[in-house]
Amino acid sequence: MNLTKRFAALSATMVLLFVAATVGVRAQETAAPAPAASPTLMDREYDGQMHITLAPYVWLPTVHGSVQYTVPNLPRHAGHSGDINFTTSPADYVSKLNSAAMGALDVRKGGFDVFGDYIYTNATASANESASIGGPLGRRQLQLALGTSARLVPRIWEAAAGFTVARGHDADLSIFLGLREFPINLTLGYNATVTGRRGSFTTNGTVLSSTLTNDVITGLRGKAFFGDGHIFVPYYIDFGTSTGVNNQTWEGYTGAGYAFNHGQSLLLTYRTLNYFAFPPNVAVQKFNMSGPLFGYTFNL
After folding, report:
1. 12 contact partners, CB below 8 Å, separation of at least 6
2. Matching CATH number, 3-299, of 3.40.50, 3.30.2010, 3.30.70, 2.40.128
3. What is the DSSP letter of 94?
4. Residue boundaries of the structural domains of the chain
5. 3-state class (DSSP) for residue 191
6. pLDDT at 66 over 90
7. CA atoms of 230 and 224, how far apart (whole Å)
8. H or E segment at 42?
9. pLDDT digits (tens, 9 = 90+) for 73-126
10. What is the three-class DSSP state of 116?
11. In terms of Cα–Cα distance, which of 158, 292, 294, 166 is closest to 220?
12. Helix/strand/coil for 140
């Protein structure tokens, strides 16, 4: 499934969950008064007390991206530029992952909440590419073989404040406004072999790139409980625009969870984070991460 279809499917899922949650909330609000019952797990979240939860998680996305490079100082040529498009699955990078940390924090009191998310990874990867470079008037051809090794260190964090606009005993809906920052530190080493009619030569070098994006994000999030009141479906979607480097971003997730009576819960979701439309002079041109997420929430 390509990115456009995945985004359309995720957006449709979020809309359906939004409608279901809203209908459920309104139905509960307009229903006839019922005999007093034990508060649900969601009622406990809105009891007016402060609730702080910490959620360490493991996210194993497939990473798609595009990195541009330039090989300078070719004899009788101004150089060669191109793009390396890469796709890396968890099976490819887990063994190359040097270090990682992931977690989310949520502070709620009544209908107001503040939450944050932090992702840090340190990974290495390699790629190979070949190309043909045409000479003057197309009479000569140079063959370029390019081998690269890269060290990519993204640190992604976001913080936002939200307000609950609808709530029932088993479903809620919040709107939020916040900021997401994505600094990408890329070290790209290349080793290029150029072959022509008179032989071949090799050139190598290192490209250092640091790209910082700050995006204002806004979106919807919430959850809906089903069945015995322990199984729930979380949903989240945001859209962002840049305040620095010109880019756009969106993120979304949904899945399933199980809430225990003591308030802690298990989570299994599918999460997508996408960056696109970087300026032409930035080394990283596109960056997308999509995959399953496993988490557990603790009450502090």
Report:
1. none
2. 2.40.128
3. G
4. 3-299
5. strand
6. no
7. 10
8. helix 41-45
9. 555 555 556 666 767 778 777 777 778 899 999 999 999 999 999 998 877 666
10. strand
11. 166
12. coil
